[in-house]
Amino acid sequence: MANIEIELEVNGRQEQVSVEPGKTLLHLLRENLGLTGAKDGCRSGDCGACVVIVDGRSVNSCMVLAPQAEGSSVMTVEGLAQGDELHPLQRAFAENWAFQCGFCTPGMLASCYALLEFNDNPTRDEIRAAIAGNFCRCTGYQAVVKAVEQAATELRVLKGGSRNA
Ligand code: FES
Ligand code: FES
Fold first, then answer.
1. Same fold, 4-79 and 88-159
2. Could you say which ligand is closest to the alpha carbon of residue 135?
3. Minimum-distance ligand to the CA of 38?
4. How wide is the angle at C-alpha 37 spanned by C-alphas 31 and 39, nearest 5°?
5. CATH class of 88-159
6. How confident is the model at residue 159 (pLDDT cuts 50, 70, 90)?
7. Which of the listed CATH numbers 2.30.40.10, 3.10.20.30, 3.10.450.10, 3.60.20.10 matches domain 4-79?
8. Ligand 2 contact via 102 beta carbon (within 6 Å)
9. For ligand 2, atom 4: residue with the closest CA
10. Number of the ligand closest to the Cα of 29
11. Is any ligand 2 atom within 6 A of the Cβ of residue 141?
12. Rounded to the nearest whole angstrom, what is the distance from the C-alpha of residue 134 to the centroid of ligand 2?
């Protein structure tokens, strides 16, 4: 079957890509754009290793066909840092030992980023709910929850306000 030309924005850059109609967004990112942060885990929407942010929402990119992403704005873990400056979430993950092997981490970060975009002061239960679809076999999740709380606090300070301040 003939390839399809699609246009989408990825990490702030406009991209034009020619893909097979059955290709997933995950494989477009990894194979066509060389963005290998999002991981190819289960390919069935179960593990969350492939999570990226599409138009502000966290999605399992293995469950989205690339042509469905036409016109979308996609953010991957590669879009979090600004040059050499890690995003507060990335720093908090490192400081709290919120990863070990790191396979789940790009998806975990994407889910947490999407959470903090619409809720800058999440409860522990809200954080747990946000990462419910991200499987981690190393950390036991507590360190991730702590990291998100730390990052949320830092981001609120950076924004100059807090609901609980
Ligand atoms: S690879 Fe997409 S959810 Fe597991
Ligand atoms: S850090 Fe290894 S799976 Fe999460």
1. no
2. 2
3. 1
4. 75
5. mainly alpha
6. confident
7. 3.10.20.30
8. yes
9. 136
10. 1
11. no
12. 10
Q: Is the pLDDT of residue 164 over 80?
A: no
Summarised one tens digit per residue, pLDDT across range 112-132 is 999 999 999 999 999 999 999
d(CA 12, CA 19): 20
Supply 65's token pair: 């066909």
Tell me the pLDDT band of 160, cut-offs 50, 70 and 90: confident
Higher per-residue confidence, 40 vs 162 = 40
How high is the pLDDT of residue 161? 57
**Across the beta sheet with 13-19, what order do the strands follow?**
13-19, 4-10, 73-75, 51-54, 57-60
At CA 43, angle to CA 54 and CA 28, rounded to 5? 50
pLDDT in tens, 12-69: 999 999 999 999 999 999 999 999 999 999 999 999 999 999 999 999 999 999 999 9
Q: Which atom from ligand 1 is nearest to the alpha carbon of 133?
A: 3
Overall residue count recorded for the chain in this entry: 165
CA of residue 108 to ligand 1 center, whole Å: 12
